[in-house]
Amino acid sequence: MTATAPSGRNVAQLALPLGWDSDDDSGGFLVGTSNVEAVRHLEHHATWPVRASVLVGPAGSGKSLLGRAFAQATGGAVIDPVEGTPDHAIFHAWNAAQETRKPLLLIASAPPASWPVALPDLRSRLMAAPVVIIGEPDDCLALTLIERQFAARATPVAPDLAGYLVPRIERSYSAIHRVVRALDEAALAGHRRIGIRTAREVLFAHDLLGTARRRTKDTS
User: Is the domain of 82 the same as that of 114?
Assistant: First the structure.
């Protein structure tokens, strides 16, 4: 997998020994403080205490991309998402991983303790599996994600717009997607480049200011 980051940013660019290649359209998987431990855990799958692990992360965090790259690089199995997968299917995949010694990655939005597992044998196995969590992005990763999404959409924006947005919106992957989509729609509707003034209007109009960050908003 290619882990990328613009030069000079506090987003790690890791040379992963697996040599994973990203198949997404946005230029590779960005590694930051919120996901570096998960990436390293997948990278070192040979050291897992059992041949299975659980990857947990919020929507939009790239956990499915990691899962696809992991399956391609290791030949292991991935269940994504675990939610809605029958117990017997998970149980069969678990046993197959132990027998073949090929890793199994279970991808979910919450840790196994909250899964509605009815099979006692499966629950005991899940409790033995390592769980790695992708957290919400730090400010540096959020900045890079915003810039990347604007570039992917070819949204015309002012050079300093991403820096303006980061301290003002909720710091989450889902919020970043909502904000970028709203600003892209505004750019298309108005046939104009989005600057700070227009962005401020869109944030207020769509109630996209982060609750804990409203004090940082411009009042000019």
Answer: yes
